[in-house]
Structure formats: C-alpha cells, structure tokens
Amino acid sequence: MKIEVMFHCGNAPKMERVIELTIALAKKDINLVKSHVRGDFIWRTVGIEDVISFDDLTQELVKRPTVTELNIENALSHGNGAMCEGALLFEDGSLLYFCNVVKFVNTAKDALVKEAHTYFVN
Question: Which of 2, 10, 47, 58 could make an SS bond with 69 (beta carbons 3.0 to 4.6 A apart)?
C-alpha cells in the first residue's frame, strides 16, 4: 500500500497516534490496531448504525475492501482528542474521503484510544 502523510512537526504524540491508528486500520493490521486501543474500545462509522467493539475488530477488518493508497492530508490533536483526514483509494479504483476522530482515555502522550468515529464521503 502506498502511504502519504502530510508534513508535521513530529512533536504531537496524540496526532502521531491517530495517524498510526488510521494507517493500521487501512492496512487491516489487527495487532497494530489493538496496540493503540483499549479493551473496551468502540468504533462507529458515522451514518451506519453498527458499533464495532474491540472483540469484533478482526472480523470487521477482514470484511473491509483492500486499500491500495492512503493519503493523510491533515491531522490535529488537543487534550484527549485527535483527528486525521484524507483519502483512501481501493483496489477497484474507487475513492473515499475520510475523517477519523478519536477520543483517548486521558491526556497522557501514550494514552490508548477508547473511541473512534469515522466519517466517509464519496
């Protein structure tokens, strides 16, 4: 998978973590995803009523289409929240724009993610 991440200072740990989590989700790397989230983690795709729990992550990622290119264009963090946005290109040539918004357990620089909301737009 080709990955492009916007230039940033590298001095914002939560911003780095949301970027790493987004890359892991796009790659369907369940071990890396689980290293960034808590055991009671929930993931909501906005507009879809399903809520994916920590226990359902592996099953859900397997069902997702294969991403061939990920472009992260923007990322921000403040307090116990962070977001990143960009575009996903899939094997079939389709393109989705996304925004991944996460809430961390606390404000510590190595805090785990307890909740994520992902928005997709064609």
Answer: 2
Sheet architecture: strand order including 51-53: 2-5, 67-78, 81-90, 95-104, 113-121, 37-45, 51-53
Lookup result for tokens 């920590």: 54
CA nearest 27: which of 4, 60, 74, 61? 61
Domain count along the chain: 1
pLDDT for residue 108: 94
Q: Which residue has the higher pLDDT, 92 or 8?
A: 92
Q: Could you list the residue range(s) of the whole structural domain that residue 65 is in? A: 2-121
Check which CATH number belongs to the domain holding 8 and give it: 3.10.450.50
Whole-number pLDDT of residue 91: 96
* Nearest Cα to Cα of residue 113 among 46, 48, 50, 25: 25
Task: Decide: pTM greater than 0.70.
Answer: yes
